[in-house]
Design brief:
The protein is of the alpha/beta class and 215 residues long. It is 28% helix and 19% strand. The protein has seven helices and ten strands.
């Protein structure tokens, strides 16, 4: 594993002495207790990769969500941190050491590309669970699916459950995409309560919180 980028938010590139700015990672705390432990005043913020990688967090769950609107409407969950908007940059999560000891769950668009990203995340954190990325979801909400990008991966990805692999096959062959935001919010809340122990009494964010950058 390569070392984290430098602590000033810039990474040196040898041999020319040039520097590029490291990526920011969008984070939302679904439990105020975790937020308080880190001493961070914002519920939602964008942080440099090295900053997030250097957090000391224990006994947490990490919910990786591709769509930021969905991320901002997730219900509150005990000991849970939501991470969003990475797309194909999900491999950057290999620099976040505390994820090695976290319960990781991934939710992206249900299409061939989204399932490929799930496979990549699981190649880094093999115990990664998925949410709304299987055949049961496709069967239930197929009427809400649209056409995908038309780009087809070179072959089926590794690290999938049988249901995820079958969902990949159907989406790939039929060019389907079930976008995250098409999943009814009631179904999201129910799934979070069942899988992650969401707190029904806690209010959900109804709009995007202005991103704050922690330096």
């Amino acid at each position: 594993m390569r070392p984290l980028p430098s602590s000033n938010g810039w990474t040196n590139t040898k041999p020319y002495g040039l520097r590029y700015h490291e990526p920011d990672i969008f984070v939302r705390f679904l439990d105020p207790a975790v937020q308080a432990e880190l001493g961070i005043p914002y519920e939602a913020l964008a942080v440099p990769l090295h900053t997030m990688g250097g957090w000391t967090i224990r006994n947490v769950r990490a919910m990786i969500v591709e769509n930021r609107v969905n991320l901002m409407t997730l219900p509150k969950c005990t000991r849970t941190v939501a991470i969003g908007g990475l797309g194909n940059g999900a491999s950057l999560l290999r620099y976040v050491s505390w994820l090695q000891h976290a319960r990781v769950c991934y939710w992206g668009d249900l299409d061939s590309e989204g399932i490929v990203i799930l496979s990549r995340v699981r190649s880094i954190y093999p115990a990664t669970e998925s949410l709304f990325m299987d055949c049961a979801t496709l069967d239930l909400f197929r009427h809400l699916a649209g056409q995908g990008s038309g780009r087809r991966p070179p072959g089926p990805p590794a690290n999938l459950t049988p249901s995820e692999a079958e969902a990949f096959r159907i989406c790939d062959e039929e060019g389907l995409r079930l976008e995250q935001e098409r999943i009814p919010q009631a179904a999201v809340v129910e799934a979070f309560a069942h899988r992650l122990g969401a707190r029904h009494d806690a209010p959900m964010s109804s709009s995007l919180v202005a991103s704050k950058r922690q330096v």
